[in-house]
Amino acid sequence: MTEFPHFPPSFEWGCATAAFQIEGGATEGGKLSSIWDDFCAQPGRIKDGSDGLIACDHFHRFHEDVALMADLGFRHYRFSIAWTRVVDEQGRANQAGLDFYRRLLTALHERGITPNATLFHWDLPSHLQGGWLHRDTAHRFADYALVVARELGDLLPRVATLNEPWCSAFLGHDIGVFAPGVQDRPSSLLAAHHLMLAHGLGLQAWRSVRRDTQLGIVLNPELCDAASDAQQDVAAARMAELERNDVFLNPLFNREWPAEILQQIGPLAEQRRPGDIAICAQPLDFIGLNYYTRSIAQAPVSAEEQRRGYRFVPPDPQRPDLTDIGWEIYPQGLDRVTRNLLAKWPLPPIWITENGAADNTPVTDGTCDDQMRLGYLQSHLAQLAQMVAGGIDIRGYYVWSLLDNFEWAQGYTQRFGVVHVDYATQQRTPKSSARWLQQLMSSPQA
Ligand code: IFM
Fold it and tell me: Residue 226 forms beta bridges with which residues?
């Protein structure tokens, strides 16, 4: 008999997804294109040349997916709303798109599943010229937030503005492996600033029409260890953490960026206006933390690394403790990173809004026995149980992800779902990890 980790009865159990990764229905009901549609259309950007046009066809199959969630025992569901589906180019409400989310939210409500919606999970409307490099995009985000608050707010008890703004800013504008594929260090910092401004303006807009929603943001903080004790490696690891953590958490708590970061943005700093940080620092009802792995850094070598101030050392691919995407399995990092953040910033109550593993085990004879993911989840949930028992205010956990889905630049080559998706037939098959979570969530301890 399996022994399950112990959590308080009030602890919330959920699964997470994002619009572009599962919905499909890419042109239905007046949906506009996003920068990820554009990115996918550029040759060589996505590993398997795929796109999000159909994905898991959740747009047409959401009833089946909600039933599946309920059968597996998930009582909470984190998903994202596609900005491109619910407002038109003028920023006006698009009723057909809003109706889709109202139907989804009604189905969740009927199954006793509480929604947690994210307003922006990277699928920026293509028509917003300049994207996050343009200050006006932050205002357009606030207009969009207002539409969602007015039209769907009655069904949304908990809402996050942004998911992992580090990815939009730095993978999208510095490393260039995510949409829009820009490679320019100062631009990535300007994008980060505008994303945080959008967060602040979005919360102000939402609260101007609704006061009964729990509002927050979802970050993917970094735990970066130095490759050695050498002073240059230690400094590099610190720079990686400043970029990933301080760039986003400082404005949330009305603090200026560290001097090293201000130096990197250079003359573009002029586009940050007096008063912006105070706008970013709206009260937070919760913070979502996404945790998958840790990083190792050493002193920069190339000119590009020197601009960043660090160089990442990827784990040796032969190591046995890696997930299929090559990320180190490091459960103690969940505790370490959370404590690091709490030591530096006065965080509100925490939800672990994503945690999971790429495990590409296929379906054999109708079952998918994803032992590596199972071990990953067991070790991370054992760690989490200790953290909660030790008094860290963590209120819930959402596994990433409900379904195998479009894994951004990796296309469909990496499977993060606890439910297998056969993309040819759209058949869903719960994996061993889903069955284990089902038992955990229904155990008397949970
Ligand atoms: O699939 C992504 C998700 O969209 C954001 N967080 C990390 C996941 C795995 O890479």
Answer: 297
Alpha carbons 378 and 433: distance in angstroms, whole number: 9
For residue 255, count other CB atoms closer than 10 A to its CB: 15
For 281, the token pair is 């620092």
**Ligand 1 pocket test, candidate residues 120, 354, 359, most atoms within 8 A of CB:** 354
Res 1 pLDDT > 50: no
The whole-model pTM stands at: 0.98
Task: Assess if residue 2 is contained within a domain.
Answer: no
Residue 6 counted as domain residue: no
Report the side by side order of strands in the sheet with 224-226: 224-226, 295-298, 311-312
In a domain, 5, yes or no: no
- Which domain does 245 fall in, by range? 12-442
Give the other-Cβ count within 10 Å of 411's Cβ: 17
Tell me the pairing of strands 76-80 and 114-120.
Answer: parallel
Q: What is the CATH number of the domain that holds 257?
A: 3.20.20.80
Is there a contact between 124 and 83 (Cβ–Cβ < 8 Å)? yes
DSSP characters over 166-225 = HIIIIIHHTS-SSTT----HHHHHHHHHHHHHHHHHHHHHHHHH-SSSEEEEEE----EE
Regarding the beta carbon of 197 and ligand 1, being less than 6 Å apart is answered no
Whether 162 has a pLDDT exceeding 60, the answer reads yes
Whether 3 maps to a domain, the answer reads no
Give me the number of domains the chain comprises: 1
Q: Is the CB of 354 under 6 A from ligand 1?
A: yes
Pairing state between β 224-226 and 286-290: unpaired
E-state strands within 31-151: 76-80, 114-120
Ligand 1 pocket residue status of 290, Cβ below 6 Å: yes
How far is the centre of ligand 1, averaged over its atoms, from the C-alpha of 273 (Å)? Answer: 31
Q: What is the pLDDT of residues 248-284, one digit of tens each?
A: 999 999 999 999 999 999 999 999 999 999 999 999 9
